[in-house]
Design goal:
CATH class of the largest domain: Mainly Alpha
Shape: elongated
Structural class: mainly alpha
Radius of gyration: 24 Å
Number of domains: 2
CATH superfamily of the largest domain: Intergrase catalytic core
Order of helices and strands: HHHHHHHEEEHHHHHH
Distance between the termini: 68 Å
Number of helices: 13
CATH architecture of the largest domain: Orthogonal Bundle
Strand content: under 5%
Length: 304
Amino acid sequence: MDAAALQQLEAYLDSLRFQRRLSPHTLAAYGRDLRQLRDYCERRGLSDWQALKAADLRQYLAQRHREQLGSRSLHRALSAQRGFFAWLIRGGELAGDPTVGLRAPKAPRRLPKVLDVDQVVSLLEVPVDDILEQRDLAMWELFYSSGLRLSELTGLDIFDVDLRDGMVLVRQGKGRKSRQVPVGACARKAMAAWFAVRDRLVREGETAVFLSRRGTRIAPRTVQARLERWQFRLGLSEGLHPHRLRHSFASHLLESSADLRAVQELLGHANLSTTQVYTHLDFQHLASVYDRAHPRARSGRKGE
């Protein structure tokens, strides 16, 4: 492709980085998707973005599908392309959007894996032996009590937590939206115990709620590694990760309350459809109970 087309692509990625302030993970994925499209255009001998037609994009997506690129990745690639071409059109550098009418293969909806209540209790009622385990327990309690994302938990500052009223302020969660979430009695107790020993670790001027052993803000990867350590300690066979505690929070709350809107607000989901996956999970649980308990549910019974 010519130099102008390449400059347009890099300028768009810069706008995502500095104006829309996308997360590094999303920015890297979009950059990878669009540069792969650039390489395809160069192999096809297309000199600029105006030369790219819907038929070319359809062939490109079909090729990536044959290369075993998953449905979710194809959807993301098409989303990156749509954003880029819309940006070019707004800037008067492209006459029409070649993605109009294109659809990626439908992605199967995968249900999140959750812990049952007994597994959660076994995690949260383990006696702690040192200051780091006291910190860990406070983190696990807060994940399960308030449904935080990993980045939201590691980003908490001490002035975001109000244990007296039992509330936590999540500043700029996903989509850069803030929300307040309640903290249950067990989590407040664990947090209070952690705050009682936090000063033994903290470096001067550090405001993070959860600290590393060096006294600085704990890194997301450290939280994941510590949770894996607790998994082996408890002998749990399935992988234990922060998002599973968030899934468990949502599933158990919805199972008890059936209030989908409230769960949406607590999770910080922009769209109700994202939260609705937990209704499918709950129905799957109810269907399993029905199959086990109803005298006429199982096939092969006499008289059926």
